[in-house]
């Protein structure tokens, strides 16, 4: 197993309660900030906070598993990073388009931005799910067996304690067995 580096991805190994409080605190602060902004700016700011705090955890989780287990985790670091950045940019822009402009032409731009952002977010969640299930099972698992965990990713603020517990347990067991993923 590769040695874990000291970069930001290590924060995903925190206790489930700490991760849950950080995510809920960040979402709450974002909601409060978005509420006091002038009309038209609150929606995009809230979506930006949602992407940062709700998608940031699976993004860091996927990067951390790739860092430790390498190619065995099946995480494509550049693609996952690009998807996170795409969701970070496209989803708030989609709401800005709706709040600033009107008409059919802008509706098409909204749909393109929103669809692209949702696809990027979905790929990011699927990759984090795939890596987590692979490390837990220590073997390739059929896609239909990954779907329950993938669906849990869509309600992240609620399911973070359970998913974080699974993540930490899988890492601990892999380290105890010195499993490299090969």
Q: Fraction of residues in helices? A: over 70%
By DSSP (H or I, 4+ residues per run), the number of helices equals 6
Question: How far apart are the termini?
Answer: 9 Å
Oligomer: single chain
**C-alpha Rg, in Å?**
18 Å
**Overall mean confidence score, pLDDT:** 82
Can you tell me the overall shape?
Answer: globular
Runs in which pLDDT lies below 50 for 5 or more consecutive residues are 1-6
Bin the strand percentage: under 5%
Largest sheet: none
Question: What is the H/E order?
Answer: HHHHHH
Number of strands: 0
Judged by helices, strands and strand pairing, the structural class is mainly alpha
Please characterize this protein's 3D structure.
The chain has helices spanning 16-36, 42-69, 77-100, 104-137, 143-153, 156-176. α1 runs antiparallel to α2 (42-69), α2 (42-69) runs parallel beside α4 (104-137) and α4 packs across α5. It has 6 helices and no strands. Residues 1-6 have low confidence and may be disordered. Helices cover 76% and strands 0% of the residues. With 182 residues, the protein is mostly helical.
